Amino acid sequence: MKYISTRGQAPAASFEEVLLTGLAPDGGLYVPETLPQFSHEQIASWAGLDYPSLALEIIRPFVNGEIPEAELRAAIDRSYASFTHPAIAPLRMLGHNEWVMELYCGPTLAFKDFALQLLGQLLDYVLKRRGQKVAIMGATSGDTGSAALEGCRHCDNVDLFILHPHQRVSEVQRRQMTTVPGDNVHNIAVRGNFDDCQRLVKTAFGDQSFLPEGWQLVAVNSINWARIMAQIVYYFHASLSLGGPHREMSFSVPTGNFGDIYAGFLAKRMGLPVKQLIVATNRNDILHRLISDNEYSLGELEHTLSPSMDIMVSSNFERFLFDLFERDATAVREFVTGLGEKPLQLEAQRWERAREIFASHAVDDDTTCEVIRQVFESTEFLVDPHTAIGIQAARSCNVDRSIPMITLATAHPVKFADAVTRAGLAMPDLPLHMQDLMARSERYEVLDNDLGQVTRFIRSQL
Ligand SMILES: *Cc1c(COP(=O)(O)O)cnc(C)c1O
To answer: CB under 8 Å to 249, separation ≥6 — which residues?
Structure first.
Protein backbone atom coordinates (compact mmCIF):
# COMPACT_ATOMS: atom_id res chain seq x y z
CA MET A 1 0.00 0.00 0.00
CA LYS A 2 1.22 3.45 -0.88
CA TYR A 3 0.26 6.75 0.73
CA ILE A 4 -0.69 9.81 -1.31
CA SER A 5 -1.04 13.48 -0.47
CA THR A 6 -4.45 15.18 -0.19
CA ARG A 7 -3.05 17.99 -2.36
CA GLY A 8 -1.90 15.71 -5.17
CA GLN A 9 1.49 17.28 -5.80
CA ALA A 10 3.80 15.01 -3.83
CA PRO A 11 5.13 11.58 -4.82
CA ALA A 12 3.46 8.52 -3.28
CA ALA A 13 5.25 7.32 -0.14
CA SER A 14 5.67 4.05 1.75
CA PHE A 15 4.35 3.45 5.28
CA GLU A 16 7.85 3.88 6.65
CA GLU A 17 8.36 7.19 4.87
CA VAL A 18 5.01 8.48 6.08
CA LEU A 19 5.83 7.39 9.64
CA LEU A 20 9.07 9.38 9.56
CA THR A 21 7.69 12.71 8.46
CA GLY A 22 4.89 15.22 9.00
CA LEU A 23 3.05 16.92 6.20
CA ALA A 24 3.64 15.82 2.61
CA PRO A 25 6.08 18.11 0.73
CA ASP A 26 3.15 19.83 -1.05
CA GLY A 27 1.60 20.83 2.29
CA GLY A 28 -1.06 18.10 2.15
CA LEU A 29 -1.68 15.18 4.48
CA TYR A 30 -0.91 11.58 3.64
CA VAL A 31 -3.78 9.13 3.22
CA PRO A 32 -3.71 5.49 2.06
CA GLU A 33 -4.11 5.11 -1.67
CA THR A 34 -6.75 2.43 -1.09
CA LEU A 35 -8.56 1.69 2.14
CA PRO A 36 -8.58 -1.92 3.39
CA GLN A 37 -12.09 -3.43 3.34
CA PHE A 38 -13.25 -6.00 5.86
CA SER A 39 -16.30 -8.17 5.20
CA HIS A 40 -19.05 -8.74 7.73
CA GLU A 41 -17.85 -12.35 8.19
CA GLN A 42 -14.27 -11.27 8.70
CA ILE A 43 -15.21 -8.70 11.35
CA ALA A 44 -17.51 -11.23 13.04
CA SER A 45 -14.62 -13.71 13.23
CA TRP A 46 -12.68 -11.26 15.44
CA ALA A 47 -15.32 -11.28 18.18
CA GLY A 48 -13.19 -13.16 20.72
CA LEU A 49 -9.93 -11.28 20.19
CA ASP A 50 -8.27 -9.26 22.91
CA TYR A 51 -7.27 -5.66 22.16
CA PRO A 52 -3.71 -6.27 20.90
CA SER A 53 -4.80 -9.18 18.69
CA LEU A 54 -7.57 -7.10 17.16
CA ALA A 55 -5.15 -4.19 16.69
CA LEU A 56 -2.85 -6.47 14.68
CA GLU A 57 -5.69 -7.46 12.32
CA ILE A 58 -6.64 -3.86 11.65
CA ILE A 59 -3.16 -2.34 11.46
CA ARG A 60 -1.54 -5.11 9.38
CA PRO A 61 -2.87 -4.00 5.95
CA PHE A 62 -1.76 -0.40 6.54
CA VAL A 63 1.80 -1.47 7.33
CA ASN A 64 1.77 -3.62 4.24
CA GLY A 65 4.58 -6.00 5.21
CA GLU A 66 7.09 -3.19 5.72
CA ILE A 67 7.49 -4.38 9.31
CA PRO A 68 7.63 -8.18 9.76
CA GLU A 69 4.48 -9.53 11.43
CA ALA A 70 6.26 -10.80 14.56
CA GLU A 71 7.89 -7.40 15.10
CA LEU A 72 4.61 -5.60 14.53
CA ARG A 73 2.85 -7.85 17.03
CA ALA A 74 5.61 -7.23 19.59
CA ALA A 75 5.36 -3.47 19.07
CA ILE A 76 1.59 -3.57 19.60
CA ASP A 77 1.95 -5.74 22.72
CA ARG A 78 4.50 -3.38 24.24
CA SER A 79 2.34 -0.35 23.40
CA TYR A 80 -0.62 -1.51 25.44
CA ALA A 81 1.25 -3.36 28.22
CA SER A 82 1.52 -0.15 30.25
CA PHE A 83 -2.25 0.45 30.31
CA THR A 84 -3.68 0.16 33.80
CA HIS A 85 -6.94 -1.57 32.80
CA PRO A 86 -6.76 -5.09 31.37
CA ALA A 87 -9.52 -4.32 28.84
CA ILE A 88 -7.35 -1.44 27.47
CA ALA A 89 -10.46 0.48 26.30
CA PRO A 90 -13.20 -0.50 28.80
CA LEU A 91 -16.84 0.40 28.23
CA ARG A 92 -19.07 1.77 30.97
CA MET A 93 -22.82 2.15 30.93
CA LEU A 94 -24.38 5.49 31.90
CA GLY A 95 -28.00 4.73 31.03
CA HIS A 96 -30.20 2.83 28.60
CA ASN A 97 -28.02 2.09 25.56
CA GLU A 98 -25.80 4.95 26.66
CA TRP A 99 -22.12 4.06 26.97
CA VAL A 100 -18.76 5.70 27.40
CA MET A 101 -15.51 4.16 26.18
CA GLU A 102 -12.76 4.98 28.67
CA LEU A 103 -9.73 5.85 26.60
CA TYR A 104 -7.61 7.21 29.43
CA CYS A 105 -6.05 4.11 30.98
CA GLY A 106 -2.66 4.75 29.38
CA PRO A 107 0.38 6.29 31.10
CA THR A 108 -0.62 9.96 30.60
CA LEU A 109 -4.39 9.58 31.16
CA ALA A 110 -5.68 10.69 27.74
CA PHE A 111 -6.59 8.82 24.54
CA LYS A 112 -3.47 10.13 22.85
CA ASP A 113 -1.53 7.30 24.53
CA PHE A 114 -3.24 4.81 22.20
CA ALA A 115 -1.47 6.25 19.20
CA LEU A 116 1.71 7.67 20.72
CA GLN A 117 2.70 4.51 22.55
CA LEU A 118 2.50 2.67 19.24
CA LEU A 119 4.22 5.47 17.32
CA GLY A 120 7.16 5.25 19.76
CA GLN A 121 7.43 1.47 19.29
CA LEU A 122 7.24 1.70 15.49
CA LEU A 123 9.80 4.51 15.34
CA ASP A 124 12.17 2.56 17.55
CA TYR A 125 12.01 -0.49 15.28
CA VAL A 126 12.27 1.38 11.98
CA LEU A 127 15.06 3.76 13.06
CA LYS A 128 17.21 0.98 14.50
CA ARG A 129 16.85 -0.98 11.28
CA ARG A 130 17.79 2.05 9.20
CA GLY A 131 20.55 3.18 11.58
CA GLN A 132 18.98 6.63 11.48
CA LYS A 133 18.38 9.31 14.09
CA VAL A 134 15.48 11.77 14.10
CA ALA A 135 14.27 14.70 16.14
CA ILE A 136 10.63 14.85 17.12
CA MET A 137 9.32 18.36 17.34
CA GLY A 138 5.81 19.14 18.48
CA ALA A 139 3.68 21.89 19.97
CA THR A 140 1.23 21.04 22.73
CA SER A 141 -1.52 22.70 24.68
CA GLY A 142 -1.26 19.82 27.12
CA ASP A 143 -2.11 16.21 26.30
CA THR A 144 -0.08 15.56 23.15
CA GLY A 145 3.22 16.59 24.73
CA SER A 146 3.12 14.22 27.67
CA ALA A 147 1.82 11.33 25.56
CA ALA A 148 4.59 11.86 22.98
CA LEU A 149 7.27 12.04 25.68
CA GLU A 150 6.00 8.88 27.40
CA GLY A 151 5.64 7.07 24.08
CA CYS A 152 9.03 7.92 22.61
CA ARG A 153 11.43 8.54 25.50
CA HIS A 154 12.72 4.95 25.38
CA CYS A 155 13.74 5.30 21.70
CA ASP A 156 17.54 5.53 21.52
CA ASN A 157 17.43 7.05 18.04
CA VAL A 158 14.98 9.83 18.89
CA ASP A 159 15.42 13.23 20.55
CA LEU A 160 12.19 14.92 21.59
CA PHE A 161 11.56 18.66 21.62
CA ILE A 162 8.13 19.58 22.95
CA LEU A 163 7.06 23.23 22.97
CA HIS A 164 4.37 24.38 25.36
CA PRO A 165 3.15 27.92 26.09
CA HIS A 166 4.93 29.16 29.22
CA GLN A 167 2.58 29.39 32.22
CA ARG A 168 -0.46 28.48 30.10
CA VAL A 169 -0.82 24.75 30.72
CA SER A 170 -2.21 23.29 33.93
CA GLU A 171 0.24 22.25 36.64
CA VAL A 172 -0.61 18.56 36.25
CA GLN A 173 -0.12 18.81 32.49
CA ARG A 174 3.20 20.68 32.84
CA ARG A 175 4.55 18.26 35.42
CA GLN A 176 3.51 15.29 33.29
CA MET A 177 5.93 16.66 30.68
CA THR A 178 8.72 18.23 32.67
CA THR A 179 9.29 15.33 35.06
CA VAL A 180 9.86 12.75 32.31
CA PRO A 181 13.45 11.51 32.75
CA GLY A 182 15.98 10.98 29.94
CA ASP A 183 18.79 12.78 28.11
CA ASN A 184 16.74 12.73 24.91
CA VAL A 185 13.76 14.56 26.44
CA HIS A 186 13.67 18.36 26.03
CA ASN A 187 10.79 20.56 27.14
CA ILE A 188 10.69 24.12 25.85
CA ALA A 189 8.37 26.64 27.50
CA VAL A 190 7.80 29.38 24.94
CA ARG A 191 7.02 32.91 26.12
CA GLY A 192 3.87 33.06 23.99
CA ASN A 193 0.63 31.17 23.41
CA PHE A 194 -0.17 27.81 21.80
CA ASP A 195 -0.48 29.34 18.34
CA ASP A 196 3.04 30.78 18.70
CA CYS A 197 4.34 27.32 19.58
CA GLN A 198 2.59 25.79 16.61
CA ARG A 199 3.93 28.47 14.27
CA LEU A 200 7.50 27.84 15.48
CA VAL A 201 7.12 24.12 14.85
CA LYS A 202 5.59 24.62 11.42
CA THR A 203 8.34 27.01 10.36
CA ALA A 204 11.03 24.65 11.62
CA PHE A 205 9.52 21.77 9.60
CA GLY A 206 9.54 24.01 6.51
CA ASP A 207 13.27 24.72 6.75
CA GLN A 208 15.20 21.96 8.54
CA SER A 209 18.66 23.28 7.61
CA PHE A 210 19.38 24.01 11.30
CA LEU A 211 19.62 20.25 11.98
CA PRO A 212 22.93 18.38 11.84
CA GLU A 213 23.67 16.44 8.61
CA GLY A 214 21.47 13.36 8.18
CA TRP A 215 18.81 14.37 10.73
CA GLN A 216 15.16 15.04 10.01
CA LEU A 217 12.09 16.16 11.95
CA VAL A 218 9.19 13.81 12.68
CA ALA A 219 5.71 15.03 13.65
CA VAL A 220 3.81 13.66 16.63
CA ASN A 221 0.54 15.50 16.19
CA SER A 222 -2.28 13.83 14.33
CA ILE A 223 -1.05 14.88 10.90
CA ASN A 224 1.15 11.79 11.36
CA TRP A 225 -0.78 8.97 9.69
CA ALA A 226 0.29 6.35 12.25
CA ARG A 227 -1.74 8.15 14.89
CA ILE A 228 -4.95 7.88 12.91
CA MET A 229 -4.27 4.24 12.11
CA ALA A 230 -3.91 3.30 15.78
CA GLN A 231 -7.18 5.01 16.67
CA ILE A 232 -9.29 3.05 14.17
CA VAL A 233 -8.84 -0.03 16.35
CA TYR A 234 -10.96 1.03 19.32
CA TYR A 235 -14.05 1.65 17.21
CA PHE A 236 -13.93 -2.00 16.12
CA HIS A 237 -13.18 -3.08 19.68
CA ALA A 238 -16.19 -1.26 21.12
CA SER A 239 -18.51 -2.53 18.42
CA LEU A 240 -17.38 -6.15 18.82
CA SER A 241 -17.83 -5.86 22.59
CA LEU A 242 -21.47 -4.80 22.22
CA GLY A 243 -22.69 -7.24 19.58
CA GLY A 244 -21.20 -5.84 16.40
CA PRO A 245 -20.96 -6.34 13.52
CA HIS A 246 -24.43 -7.93 13.81
CA ARG A 247 -25.91 -4.63 14.97
CA GLU A 248 -25.15 -1.00 14.25
CA MET A 249 -24.02 1.48 16.86
CA SER A 250 -23.27 5.19 17.03
CA PHE A 251 -20.29 7.15 18.33
CA SER A 252 -20.00 10.65 19.76
CA VAL A 253 -16.50 12.08 19.61
CA PRO A 254 -15.13 15.19 21.38
CA THR A 255 -13.34 16.86 18.50
CA GLY A 256 -10.40 19.25 18.17
CA ASN A 257 -8.08 18.43 15.30
CA PHE A 258 -10.60 15.94 13.81
CA GLY A 259 -8.15 13.03 14.18
CA ASP A 260 -10.19 10.88 16.52
CA ILE A 261 -13.47 11.19 14.65
CA TYR A 262 -11.75 10.78 11.29
CA ALA A 263 -10.53 7.40 12.57
CA GLY A 264 -14.19 6.53 13.27
CA PHE A 265 -15.14 7.58 9.76
CA LEU A 266 -12.44 5.27 8.38
CA ALA A 267 -13.68 2.39 10.55
CA LYS A 268 -17.09 2.81 8.94
CA ARG A 269 -15.61 3.01 5.46
CA MET A 270 -13.62 -0.16 6.16
CA GLY A 271 -16.82 -2.09 6.85
CA LEU A 272 -17.82 -1.51 10.48
CA PRO A 273 -21.60 -0.99 10.76
CA VAL A 274 -21.80 2.52 12.25
CA LYS A 275 -25.04 4.48 12.29
CA GLN A 276 -24.22 8.00 13.54
CA LEU A 277 -20.88 9.73 13.93
CA ILE A 278 -21.30 12.83 16.06
CA VAL A 279 -18.83 15.71 15.99
CA ALA A 280 -18.90 17.19 19.50
CA THR A 281 -17.25 20.59 19.87
CA ASN A 282 -16.93 23.35 22.44
CA ARG A 283 -17.50 27.01 21.53
CA ASN A 284 -14.74 26.73 18.95
CA ASP A 285 -17.40 25.35 16.66
CA ILE A 286 -16.22 25.86 13.07
CA LEU A 287 -17.00 22.21 12.25
CA HIS A 288 -20.44 22.39 13.82
CA ARG A 289 -21.22 25.55 11.82
CA LEU A 290 -20.15 23.83 8.62
CA ILE A 291 -22.21 20.69 9.26
CA SER A 292 -25.31 22.51 10.50
CA ASP A 293 -25.30 25.69 8.35
CA ASN A 294 -22.80 25.07 5.55
CA GLU A 295 -20.66 27.91 6.78
CA TYR A 296 -16.92 27.34 7.03
CA SER A 297 -15.37 30.45 8.50
CA LEU A 298 -12.74 31.43 11.02
CA GLY A 299 -13.80 32.93 14.35
CA GLU A 300 -11.91 34.25 17.33
CA LEU A 301 -10.23 31.37 19.22
CA GLU A 302 -11.89 31.05 22.63
CA HIS A 303 -10.33 29.59 25.75
CA THR A 304 -12.72 27.09 27.28
CA LEU A 305 -12.82 24.56 30.08
CA SER A 306 -12.02 21.87 27.47
CA PRO A 307 -8.64 23.24 26.31
CA SER A 308 -7.65 20.20 24.24
CA MET A 309 -10.42 21.18 21.83
CA ASP A 310 -9.54 24.88 21.64
CA ILE A 311 -8.57 24.66 17.99
CA MET A 312 -9.71 26.84 15.14
CA VAL A 313 -8.80 24.92 12.00
CA SER A 314 -8.77 21.13 12.35
CA SER A 315 -5.91 19.78 10.27
CA ASN A 316 -7.39 16.31 9.73
CA PHE A 317 -10.55 17.73 8.23
CA GLU A 318 -8.55 17.97 5.03
CA ARG A 319 -8.30 14.18 4.98
CA PHE A 320 -12.08 13.96 5.11
CA LEU A 321 -12.47 16.62 2.42
CA PHE A 322 -10.26 14.55 0.15
CA ASP A 323 -12.84 11.79 0.42
CA LEU A 324 -15.83 14.10 0.21
CA PHE A 325 -14.41 15.68 -2.97
CA GLU A 326 -13.93 12.19 -4.45
CA ARG A 327 -10.16 12.49 -4.31
CA ASP A 328 -10.06 15.64 -6.40
CA ALA A 329 -6.81 17.01 -4.93
CA THR A 330 -7.09 20.28 -6.84
CA ALA A 331 -10.50 20.98 -5.33
CA VAL A 332 -9.16 20.14 -1.85
CA ARG A 333 -6.21 22.45 -2.32
CA GLU A 334 -8.42 25.29 -3.47
CA PHE A 335 -10.88 24.82 -0.63
CA VAL A 336 -8.39 24.61 2.24
CA THR A 337 -6.13 27.40 1.01
CA GLY A 338 -9.18 29.59 0.38
CA LEU A 339 -10.02 29.80 4.07
CA GLY A 340 -9.40 33.36 5.15
CA GLU A 341 -11.41 36.51 5.58
CA LYS A 342 -14.65 35.38 3.98
CA PRO A 343 -16.73 32.30 4.83
CA LEU A 344 -16.58 29.29 2.54
CA GLN A 345 -19.42 26.97 1.55
CA LEU A 346 -19.49 23.40 0.29
CA GLU A 347 -21.36 22.65 -2.92
CA ALA A 348 -24.92 21.68 -1.95
CA GLN A 349 -24.54 18.01 -2.89
CA ARG A 350 -21.28 17.65 -1.02
CA TRP A 351 -22.71 19.36 2.03
CA GLU A 352 -25.67 16.95 1.99
CA ARG A 353 -23.28 14.02 1.84
CA ALA A 354 -21.22 15.42 4.74
CA ARG A 355 -24.44 15.69 6.76
CA GLU A 356 -25.33 12.10 5.97
CA ILE A 357 -22.00 11.07 7.48
CA PHE A 358 -21.75 13.41 10.48
CA ALA A 359 -24.11 14.96 12.97
CA SER A 360 -22.74 17.76 15.14
CA HIS A 361 -23.35 19.72 18.29
CA ALA A 362 -21.52 22.53 20.14
CA VAL A 363 -21.54 22.82 23.94
CA ASP A 364 -20.63 25.84 26.08
CA ASP A 365 -18.76 25.83 29.40
CA ASP A 366 -21.85 26.14 31.60
CA THR A 367 -23.52 23.13 29.98
CA THR A 368 -20.25 21.21 30.19
CA CYS A 369 -20.19 21.69 33.96
CA GLU A 370 -23.87 20.83 34.25
CA VAL A 371 -23.31 17.55 32.43
CA ILE A 372 -20.31 16.70 34.65
CA ARG A 373 -22.52 17.28 37.70
CA GLN A 374 -25.56 15.48 36.30
CA VAL A 375 -23.59 12.40 35.24
CA PHE A 376 -21.92 12.26 38.65
CA GLU A 377 -25.22 12.62 40.48
CA SER A 378 -26.93 9.90 38.49
CA THR A 379 -24.06 7.39 38.24
CA GLU A 380 -21.27 8.46 40.67
CA PHE A 381 -18.97 8.51 37.67
CA LEU A 382 -16.80 11.59 37.20
CA VAL A 383 -16.16 12.60 33.59
CA ASP A 384 -13.70 15.16 32.27
CA PRO A 385 -14.98 18.26 30.40
CA HIS A 386 -14.16 16.88 26.93
CA THR A 387 -16.09 13.72 27.66
CA ALA A 388 -18.99 15.75 29.06
CA ILE A 389 -19.23 17.58 25.72
CA GLY A 390 -19.34 14.24 23.94
CA ILE A 391 -22.12 12.98 26.22
CA GLN A 392 -24.18 16.13 25.71
CA ALA A 393 -23.76 15.97 21.93
CA ALA A 394 -24.74 12.29 21.96
CA ARG A 395 -27.92 13.06 23.89
CA SER A 396 -28.90 15.93 21.59
CA CYS A 397 -28.18 14.22 18.27
CA ASN A 398 -29.27 10.63 18.97
CA VAL A 399 -31.79 9.44 16.37
CA ASP A 400 -32.18 5.81 17.45
CA ARG A 401 -32.30 4.95 21.13
CA SER A 402 -32.65 1.24 20.39
CA ILE A 403 -28.95 0.89 19.54
CA PRO A 404 -25.84 1.61 21.62
CA MET A 405 -24.58 5.19 21.60
CA ILE A 406 -20.93 5.27 22.65
CA THR A 407 -19.19 8.49 23.73
CA LEU A 408 -15.42 8.47 23.61
CA ALA A 409 -14.12 9.46 27.05
CA THR A 410 -10.93 11.13 25.97
CA ALA A 411 -9.23 12.07 29.26
CA HIS A 412 -9.21 11.42 32.99
CA PRO A 413 -10.90 14.19 35.01
CA VAL A 414 -7.84 14.61 37.25
CA LYS A 415 -6.20 16.52 34.39
CA PHE A 416 -8.89 19.20 34.33
CA ALA A 417 -9.35 20.62 37.82
CA ASP A 418 -10.97 23.87 36.63
CA ALA A 419 -14.01 22.16 35.16
CA VAL A 420 -14.45 19.63 37.96
CA THR A 421 -14.26 22.37 40.59
CA ARG A 422 -16.66 24.61 38.69
CA ALA A 423 -19.10 21.70 38.51
CA GLY A 424 -19.01 21.77 42.33
CA LEU A 425 -17.37 18.38 42.66
CA ALA A 426 -14.29 17.21 44.55
CA MET A 427 -11.14 16.44 42.60
CA PRO A 428 -10.26 12.76 42.37
CA ASP A 429 -6.86 11.54 43.57
CA LEU A 430 -4.06 11.13 41.08
CA PRO A 431 -3.83 7.50 39.93
CA LEU A 432 -1.38 5.35 41.88
CA HIS A 433 1.45 5.48 39.34
CA MET A 434 1.39 9.30 39.45
CA GLN A 435 0.91 10.01 43.11
CA ASP A 436 4.35 11.54 43.61
CA LEU A 437 3.94 13.81 40.53
CA MET A 438 3.95 17.02 42.56
CA ALA A 439 7.20 16.03 44.30
CA ARG A 440 9.18 14.98 41.22
CA SER A 441 11.86 17.36 39.95
CA GLU A 442 11.13 19.29 36.78
CA ARG A 443 13.36 20.15 33.81
CA TYR A 444 12.50 22.68 31.13
CA GLU A 445 13.99 25.54 29.17
CA VAL A 446 12.16 28.87 28.94
CA LEU A 447 12.76 30.52 25.55
CA ASP A 448 11.42 33.57 23.75
CA ASN A 449 8.89 33.25 20.96
CA ASP A 450 11.78 33.39 18.52
CA LEU A 451 12.65 30.82 15.87
CA GLY A 452 16.41 31.47 16.08
CA GLN A 453 16.47 30.86 19.84
CA VAL A 454 14.50 27.64 19.50
CA THR A 455 16.48 26.18 16.60
CA ARG A 456 19.82 27.10 18.24
CA PHE A 457 18.69 25.32 21.38
CA ILE A 458 17.67 22.22 19.45
CA ARG A 459 20.93 22.16 17.52
CA SER A 460 22.92 22.47 20.75
CA GLN A 461 21.22 19.35 22.16
CA LEU A 462 21.84 17.02 19.19
C1 LIG B 1 -6.65 15.80 21.74
C2 LIG B 1 -7.88 15.73 22.53
C3 LIG B 1 -9.16 15.85 21.95
C4 LIG B 1 -9.35 16.15 20.47
O5 LIG B 1 -8.96 15.07 19.65
P6 LIG B 1 -8.74 15.31 18.08
O7 LIG B 1 -8.23 14.02 17.55
O8 LIG B 1 -7.73 16.41 17.97
O9 LIG B 1 -10.05 15.70 17.50
C10 LIG B 1 -10.26 15.69 22.75
N11 LIG B 1 -10.15 15.47 24.08
C12 LIG B 1 -8.94 15.35 24.68
C13 LIG B 1 -8.88 15.11 26.14
C14 LIG B 1 -7.77 15.47 23.94
O15 LIG B 1 -6.57 15.37 24.55
So the answer is: 238, 239, 242, 273, 274, 275, 403, 404, 405, 406
Whether residue 341 is predicted with pLDDT greater than 80 in this model: the reply is no
308-325, pLDDT tens digit by residue? Answer: 998 888 889 999 999 999
In a domain, 341, yes or no: yes
pLDDT band at 170 (very low <50, low <70, confident <90, very high): confident
**H helix intervals, 217-300:** 225-241, 259-269, 286-293
What is the CATH number for 318? 3.40.50.1100
Measured CA to CA in angstroms, residue 425 lies from 173, 287, 305, 371, 408 at distances of 20, 31, 15, 12, 22
Cis peptide before 273 (omega within 30 of 0): no
Q: Whose CA is nearest to atom 2 of ligand 1?
A: 308
Threshold 0.85, pTM exceeds: yes
The arithmetic mean of pLDDT across residues 239-268, rounded, is 97
Residue 451 lies in a domain: no
The residue segments making up the domain with residue 288 are 91-109+227-422
> Catalytic residue at 112?
yes
Mean of pLDDT values over 218-241: 96
Q: How far is the CA of 420 from the centre of ligand 1 (A)?
A: 18
> How far apart are the two ends of the chain, measured CA to CA in Å?
34
Residue nearest ligand 1's atom 1 by CA: 308
Higher pLDDT, 99 or 339: 99
Residue 306 Cα, ligand 1 centroid: separation in angstroms?
9
Q: Is the CB of 258 under 6 A from ligand 1?
A: yes
